[in-house]
Amino acid sequence: MYLDYYGFTAHPFLMTPDARLFFASSVHARAHAHLVYGLAQREGFVIITGEVGAGKTTLVERLCDELDPTSFTVARIMTSQVAGDDLLRLVADAFGVASDGTKAAVLRGIMDALRAGESVGRRHLLIVDEAQGLPPSALEELRMLSNVTEDGRALLQTILLGQPQLRRTIASPDLDQLRQRVLASYHLGGLSKDETHAYVEHRMRAVGWSGTPQWEPAALDLVHRFSSGIPRRINRLCARVLLGGALEHAQTLTAPMVEITARELEEDLTGGQPAGRAPLREFAAQHQPAHEGGTVPASAIADLARRIEMLEIQAARRERLFNRLMDLFSGLEGRR
Predict the structure, then answer these.
(1) Across the strands, what pairs with 46?
(2) What sign has the CA pseudo-torsion 311, 315, 321, 324?
(3) For residues 309 and 304, what is the distance between their CA atoms, to the nearest angstrom?
(4) CB 256 within 8 Å of CB 313
(5) d(CA 220, CA 317)
(6) Helices 217-227 and 255-269, interaxial angle, to 10°?
(7) Residue 186 host element (H or E)
């Protein structure tokens, strides 16, 4: 809906990774440099961790787009809590090798494929996503695959992508040999406030944004605050703000619009109850008088007044959006 109203050629804030919209923030540029360095070594493991939605998959898709397809055979698998034998079968499938039969047969098939690639100058790269769910035994199987060599050259490199708990797993004393094969490791943090501003504008500019709608600087500050600079959270919030802006025919996206939308998303995701205590109970707990007959501070009264005002604005906005949607549906029915 907002694509037509604002004249975008595509959705700027899709939740799915899209390498075409890659934004080289300081953290993503450093992570990319670690990947490039690791690949240049032609062996071992590269580990990239980050919170859900931090951009790990987009980063690797960008890397894959840069690789020469005549020089690399790339296999990507997404794992959960699979055992070592099952992981080997996933690797075999990803490289186009038969995965049935005994474990020994599967291993022979993988090694034959790696050696066949080496004979024609093709490197094999394995990318394992959601690797934080792998048990140590499965990670040990990956380490064993990294031992496959030909004329002193490793035939397989592996990139492990995962949430922060992957780093704790790798730190296990049982995985000391794997740690010795880690060439580069990087943790993706959130974008800074300035980078969040640049990220939002970059994504919109990539799909034909010509300055409308405008974002108030304070609105983008709130986008950063509510998203913690995590790209997927930014996308989710900004997409909803744009939808609301289009329904209200807004040419400027304001801080109150972002705050109200963020609160609505929080309610949507928590079944109507914000995370933790309900707002009024939280307020009461924060401003409970120290003794009977105590007075509530003026700052607390001002805070409550602001909350009531935000609720009133939110209710009015929802009513306007509802009426606008009803008008749109009525127009669609009339054209049938």
Answers:
(1) 159, 184
(2) negative
(3) 9
(4) yes
(5) 20
(6) 20
(7) strand 182-188
Phi first, then psi, for residue 124 (nearest 5°) are -110, 125
CA 294 – CA 224 distance, rounded (Å): 38
Other CB atoms within 10 Å distance of the CB of residue 216: 16
C-alpha span between 147 and 29 (Å, rounded): 30
Per-residue pLDDT tens for 254-303? Answer: 999 999 999 988 886 655 554 444 444 444 555 555 545 556 677 667 66
Answer yes or no: are the C-beta atoms of 230 and 244 closer than 8 Å.
Answer: no
CB 187 within 8 A of CB 164: yes
Which of 5, 4, 3 has the alpha carbon at shortest distance from 251?
Answer: 5
Q: What is the pLDDT of residues 236-250, one digit of tens each?
A: 999 999 999 998 899
Tokens of 99: 């995965």
At 116, list the tokens: 């066949």
Element (H, E) at 50: strand 45-50
| Radius of gyration for the alpha carbons in the chain, expressed in angstroms and rounded | 26
Q: Where are the alpha helices (DSSP H) in the chain?
A: 2-6, 26-41, 56-66, 84-94, 103-119, 136-145, 165-170, 176-179, 193-205, 217-227, 231-247, 255-269, 279-286, 298-334
- Give the Cα separation of 200 and 196 in Å (integer): 6
Select from 54, 59, 96, 53 the least CA-distant residue to 75.
96
